[in-house]
Write a structure and sequence with these properties.
The complex is a heterotrimer of chains A (641), B (161) and C (98). In chain B, 74% of the residues lie in helices and 0% in strands. Chain B has 161 residues and is mostly helical. The N and C termini of chain B lie far apart (63 Å). Chain C contains 3 helices and no strands. The longest helix of chain C has 30 residues. Classes of the chains: A mainly alpha (641), B mainly alpha (161), C mainly alpha (98).
Chain lengths: 641, 161, 98
Amino acid sequence: MTPAQVPIVAWLLFLAPISAILFGFFILRPLKPEWTHWPILLSCAVVAVASVALAARVYADGSFDLNFYRWAAVGDWGVDFGLRIDGPCVAVLTMVALVGSLIHVYAASYMKGDPGFSRFFLVFHLFFLAMIGLLTANNYVQMYLFWELVGLASYLLIGFWYQKESARKAALKAFLTNRVGDFGFLLALLLILTTFRVAQFHIIYLKVLVLASGGHTPEFLPLIGGLLIWAACAKSAQFPLYFWLPDAMEGPTPTSALMHAATMVTAGVFLLIRSWPLIAAVPGLPTAVAAIGAFTALASAVIAGTRKDLKRILAYSTVSHLGLMMLALGLGQIGVAVFHLIVHGFFKAALFLCAGNVGHAIHQPTANVDEVGGWRKALPWTYACFLLAALSLAGVFPFGGFFSKDAIVDAALSRGGLFAAAGLLVSIGSAFYIFRMLFLTFHGSRPEQKGLSAHPHEAGFGFVAPIVLLAVGSAFAGLLRPLIERLVDGGLHGLPVSVGGVALQMNLPGSAMIPGFEWRALLIGTAMAAIGAGAAYALTMIDAGWDWRWRVSSPRLVRVFDTDFGWKTLIGWIADGVTGLGNFAGRVLDKKWWDGAIESTGSAALGAGGLLSDASRGRLNEALWWMAAGAALLLAAGGLR
Amino acid sequence: MTLWAVVIAGAAAVVFAAAMLWSRSLYNGAVCLLVVLLQTALIYVLRGAPLLGLLQVMIYAGAVMVLTVITIMASGGASAAERFADFALPRGLAALGVAAVAAEIALTLAGAPPRAAAVAAPGLTAAFGGDLFHSYALATEAVTLLMFLAALAVLPDKEPS
Amino acid sequence: MNAAVWATAGALFALGLAAVVLRRQMLAMLLGVELMVAAADLALVHGACRFSDPEALAAVAVILAVAAAEAVVGLSLILKVLRSGRGLDAGDLTELRG
């Protein structure tokens, strides 16, 4: 395939956002900043249509992978930048485009009146562009480029309200933690270039498969796999680098919805999907991924059930679901992982925007459980969407989440052992925390909650319409199952990949199968959800006040959960140690010692001069003494010789 | 026999020199120096250079020391002032120097062959005289001139009246 | 014999040097200088008698004369300093003036 044969929609994916950003930045921002969102919304529409068209094309005709530009060319070696449009990419891309567009629409209403309105939309759309670039990259270097760009956009958006110190700190925390992960990515990238000489995905897949079938793995492959997993843990907020995500809720709600729920955090999972042939070639590494995912999912589900800030409950929930995706990947179920990624994007975005509405009703960026309560009549639309999305999250049939989440639990059960236990517990936990949130916010008001005295009311059309669409999408997402299964399958095996004109057929490791309706999954899923929801009901509605009592009676337990079982404290110590070291190097080593040494040359010269001037003071006896000593020295030297 | 005399003379000289170093009164110091010079003259005679011993007593002990004593009298003795300078003498360095000198002397003494001629050759003084007035006559004349010039230095200044 | 004379000469020289370096009064320093010269003379004479070298004795005579001259010049200088009223303490005489 030549560049001319690339479908125009692939170009539009990039051209539309780039032109919208440029137009908005250079023309609208100085002249009429409150109109910045119009070209951007237009670009969103174009991208949404383009991605659906591309999906249809890939579904019908197959993937393509084309190089456009050789960067860093040295002789006949270079890094080729290009596009890779294949099944997994286009599936996630469609979700990103649709969910992203709806959130853009929501943001137009939510951010209205904010002095940084124009800046918000430009950076928000920059992120959108970067995400598109990340998904369509055909080599590791290009992916790294957009990976970093996404991290930058995240930093700018978390710290959007930079006047707040908490926002600044959270932005820095997110960026630095991601930096730690990105360092792993960079090392992996360099190792890949060293081992395979290229960074193109399909060539690396070929090489790995050929070597693996031959029986020996390249020597750095475990290290590469480990580093990529480390990078994914940072970006997708898995243990041990997850702690930036709850604090990232300092950003505006559209940011939290799009980046830290639906898209950016899934970049890590996507990286692992792209790198799966490498990781699967190392024995034990997939199990490690699954273990990390399961552990994170379970721990964060527990913590989510104890949080009081609405957005933070959802943040921990995101961490938990990302863990589920990792678990699915680790068990080899690529199709299930992609499917859950997509469905999660829909319902999590809906839930975040509902939380945004709740906060907006009391004129705050976010809401605490203490400030709300019993609002299902006051915010009916929000309540309905929340309920729909919550049912999807809990995995209740026939909503979308059932098909994706319970498929993961099912895979875990098949694997047995600890993974099965973790899967079941996570199911219970996620139902618990989401229904606790539902009951506390929308049902019944406790004396500790000031909800009913606040007189909230539903926000306007622009606030509600996107959420409705998202909630409906998450409800019916189960229908997408066969489509996604076929797309991922094409990406992994079967359908030929057209690479630079040559048709290749590769069988990549991993299963694209997404199980459809199964009785076992229905029974187990519903049972777990019922247990969780029932527990939430009991502890919030029946035994009202339980949620406040245990905090008062066991403050130690509160501390345990507040510090994420002590992990945040440990990270705090490590960070303090590193900053202490940096402080030491900067203040003491550099300023005091080095600069002091250089600046002391003046005083040293003065001191030496003082010493010498003492010698020529004019004291006769001293002069005579030194003369005698010198003569004695000469004599001794002569005598020795 | 002469050996013992030389040793005693030498010891006496050293003792009086030390006394001169530590003397409070300059007058005492000058007298001590005088004694030292007499002792050295004695050693010259014992060693076999009687002319020089005589010269030492005459010129050095006689004229020079008398001049010094007169000047000391003129300056008032100055027995009350500080004896030693107050500069920060690096004692460690001084001790090291003394030890080095002592070691060097010891080494030199140890290495020299014992060729001590007790008495000088008889014709030594005659040869000495011959050298002074024949070989080194010019030098002798120059020294005489020098002494004459030195005498001029003692002439008093023209006091402004 | 050697050892005795050399030890004497060395001790006298060292004491003379100490007097020059350590003592404050100018006249005391002068006495030390004279002592040093005497010590050097002693060593020379001893060596001359040992090796029956008349030229060394001639040298000693010359040294004697020169030392006398130098003592005279030194004393007259000291008298000048005394007359200028600055005292004879080496600690105070730190500048060449007058």
